[in-house]
Amino acid sequence: MKLRLGRCSLPATLLLLACSAEPSANEGAPSDSAFTNNSKHVLAATTHAFDTGAGSLNVDYAGFLSKHDIVYAKANTNPDYGLTVGNGRMGAMVWSNNGLTMQVSGVDSSEQTAFSAGLVNLSTSPGMDSGYSNFAQRLALYDGVLTTRYDSNRTVTIMGSPNSEVMGIHVDDSRGNVQTISLDLSLWDLSNLNNNGDVPDLNTWKTVSTYADANGAGLSRGQTDANHFGYTLAATVEGASFTTQVVTGSKVRLNITPSSSYTIWVTCASRLNAPNFDSVAQAKSLLGSVKNTGYATTLNNYKNWWHALWRKSFVQYSGLSGDADYLENVYYLSTYLIASGAYGNYPFHFINGVYRATNDNTKWSNSYWYWNQRDVYNSFLASNHADMMAVFNGMHSRNFNALKSYTQTRYGIDGIWVPETMGWDGNARGTINSDYTKNIYSTGTEAALNMVAQYRYTNDSNYLRNTAYPFMREVAKFYTAKLSRDGAGKYYMDVSNSHETYWNVRNAVTDLVAVRKMFPIAIQTASSLGLDVNLRSQWQSVLDNLVPYPNDGTDYLPHQAPIAQTRNNENVAAELIWPYSVTGIGASDYQMALNTWNHRPFPYGNVWANDAIQAARLGLGDQTYNGMKLMLGKYQNYPNGFTNNTNGVFEYHGVHLSAANEALLQSYNDKIRVFPAIPSDGSFVGRFTLYAEGGFAVSSERESGEIKYVGIKSLYGNSAKVVNPWGNQELRVRRVSDNATITTTAAAEVSFSTTANTVYVIERTAKPLGNYTYTNISGTANQGAKYLSGTSSTLGIPATPPPDTGKYEGEKAALVNCNAEGDNAASNQGQVVNLRQGSSLSFSNTITGNTLDIRYCTMNNPGRLGLYVNGSLKQTVEFPSTNSWSGTYTTKTVSVSIPASATIKLQYDAGGAGANIDYIQVR
C-alpha cells in the first residue's frame, strides 16, 4: 500500500526456441547449445549474436546468469538478509541460526498471503555451522538453487519440486562425528496475531493442530477458514531413517539418524489446492509423491523449470563503470523473486509475496492494491511471461459476477466498478472504508487494459472474446453512467478521487484518461467481434464530447483547478505517460507531457514510484538510468535485494523491470522502437530479446554507440511498424528464410507485412548484419559482493566488509512504525518520516565514537527524540525547528559514548515530538 501520510499458460507459439533453421553462412551457427564453453564467447563492436534460425539472441544462459548469482562469503544470522529460494508457488528465506533456519510461505496459504507458513530449522550436533574455516553461500539464479558450503565436507542444497507446494533441503555431510540431526517445524507466538489479512475468523488462524507419524510430521492452522484457505506445514525425509514427535502445541520435530546424504522434503500444502480442502491429507500425499520421485530427478526437473523460464527472453544492460551491470543484476534477481511465487491461484502480493522474515507481522494485507500490484506485474508481457500476468488478470476476471453485483448494489449501475483495494474474492472492504480509495473509479480501466494487453501479446482470440472484452464492456458501461453532461453537451466527471492524492475533485485526470484510452479500444474490439452496436455509438458520443484534460497551459494537472489538498504523494498527472500510454515519444503533446514529468510534485516519492518508467516513455535515457539507480539507492537496503520500507516490498523490483524493458524496447503505440531511452554514456552496452505488442520477438544489440540491427520474429503474421533506429539512414527489411529484401527505405518509419513464425532482419544497407562476426553471449560466475556507487546498496556479503565511515543513512536503519520517503535534498535522496509515539529507527553494528551528528528536519519547535545506545536511554535530544518536513536540513551534534558494534536508536518516547531523520554520523 502507498504511504498513508503523503502513502494460465502461455501459448506454445510464444516460447523462444533454442535453435531451428540454419542461418546464412555469414551469420554463423544458430544454436546456443554449441556455445557452452565461455572461451567461445567473444563480444565486440564487430560481432553480433542474433540467431537467425531461432529469431532470438544466442545466449549461454547458464554462463550469463552466473554473473548475477548472489554470494554470501560469511554466514548471515540476520533474518532480514536471508537469501531466497522458491519454486513458483512456495518460497523460503534462509539464514544461519543454530544450523539453517528458513521462513517458509506459500502463495495460496491464506487470504492475500497474510500469514506465512512457519519456520523450518535444521540443526546437528556438533553444529553444521561450527568448526569450519571456509564458508560459501550462493543463490544460483539459472538453477534457482541455494547452496551453502562449510569447508569441503558439508553442503546444504535448497531447491524445490517445480511449480508445486513442496521444497527440499538436501544435505551432504561426510563428517564422521555427527551424533544427532533434527528438523523442527514451528510457528510464532500467535496470541497477538491481528487481522491484517481480512480473514472471516481470526481464531482459526490462532488454532494449531499437529500430527506425527512414521511418514512425517506437520502442523496446521486455518483449518476452518470459510474461504477454504489454511494450510499444513509438514516434512518427511528421504535417504535416512527418522522418528517424529510433537514438541509443543506449535512445534513438531523429525529426529534423523545421522547419514552422509539425505533429503528433507517440506510442504506448505494449502487447503485451497487440496482435494476436499483437506490440507493434512494433501501434505502427506505431496510428500509421499516427491519422496517416491526422489531427490535427483526432482532437482533435475526443478532446474529445467527455471531454465525454461529464463530462456523466454533476454536483457543485457551494462557499462557505466559497472553501475549499469548492477542494475542488470537486480533485473534478473527481481525476475527470480517474483517468478518464484507467481504461479499460484492468486497474485504475488506486493508486500507479502512468498518471501519475508517478519513472522506474521505485516502491513496492507487486507487486499490487493492495484496501484502496487501493477508495479509488480506490468513488465512481464514484454519479457514473455504472459503466464504470470494471467494470474494477476485472472483474479479480476473470475470475480466478474461479484464485481458486477456489487457495482449494482453500491451505485445502481449496470456495469463494473473495480475497487482499488480489492480482496481475493472481489470484496471492497479495504476500499469503501477509506477516504483514500473509496471514490477511485479508474482501477477497472487499468484491469481491463491489462487484459487487452494480454491478448495483444498472446493473440488468444478466445480470451479476447470471452474474457477481456466482456470485462472492458462492463467497465465502459460504468463510466458512461458515472459521467455527467453540461449544458453545452460536454461529458465531465463531477466528483471522484484523482487516485489517492486528491479527494472529491472535479474532472480527475485519471478518469478522463481512462475514458480516452479505453473507449476507442472497446469500440474497435466490439466492432471486430460484431457486438454491441448501440454501446459503440454511446461510447463514441462520449469520446466526441469529453472535456479536455485539465491543464494550465504548460503542465497537465491532476484535476480541474484549484488543486485540492494533497493526501498522498503520487504524481497523478504523469499517469498519462504510463500506465495509460496516451503520450510519449513523438506525441503531439510531447512537450506538455515532458513538462508535467519535470514538474511532478513528488519525484521518486516512495517504494512504488514509477518515475523511471515514465522517463523511458519520454525517451529520457539518462533520467531513466539515474532513476533506476536512485530507486535502488533509496530502497534496496539489504544485501539480498530487499528493502526495509514497510509500505511495500516488491513494487520497486517490478518498477525496475519495467523501466529496463522500456529503455530497451517500446511498442505501446503500435510502433516498435529499439533503444529509445538509454544512457548517453558511451560505455553503455545493451542487448535484448523482448516482446512487442502484436506478437513479435524483437532482438537488437547496441555497442560503442551503434545499433547493429533489429531482428524480428513474427509469431502471428501481423503487420509490423518499426521506427528507423538510424534516423534517416537507408535500411532494408530482409526475410531470413530466402534472403529476400522486403523493402528498402530511408524514412523515419518502416511498415511491412509478415508471415507467422518467420524471421526478419532490419539492417542498414551500408552495413548489413553480414558485416558482423557471429558469436554468443555468456559470462563468468560472480564470486563476491557487488556495490552500487554513490549509495550504500550492496548485493551479497563479502568476507571482509568495506571500511565503515560511521555514516548511517536513516532509510537503511531498522524502522518501527515509521518509513522512508524520498527527498532530493537528503543524503542518498531519502529520509525517515512519520515518527510518532512508539516509533524508532535503529542503526546496528556502528563504529565507536564520542560524538554523534544527526541530520534532520522538523516543523516542530522543537522535535524531541530519545537517544539509546545498546538499549539504554542516554539522553533526550531536542531538534530546533527547520520550518520544514523536507528540503531543508540541519545537523544536531551531541556528545555520547558509543562503544564498538553498538546499536544506536532514536525513539519517539512519551512527551516527545517528531523530527524527520536523514542520517547519523558517529565520530
Automatic annotation (TrEMBL):
Signal peptide per UniProt: 1-25
Keyword Signal belongs to the record: yes
Domain CBM6: 806-923
InterPro entries: 6-hairpin_glycosidase_sf, 6hp_glycosidase-like_sf, AFCA-like_C, CBM6, Galactose-bd-like_sf, GH95_cat, Glyco_hydro_b
Cytoplasm as UniProt keyword: no
Top-rank taxon, per record: Bacteria
Keywords: Signal
Pfam families according to UniProt: Glyco_hydro_95_C, Glyco_hydro_95_cat
PANTHER family: ALPHA-L-FUCOSIDASE 2 (PTHR31084:SF0)
Name of the molecule in the record: DUF5010 C-terminal domain-containing protein
The organism of origin for this protein: Pendulispora rubella
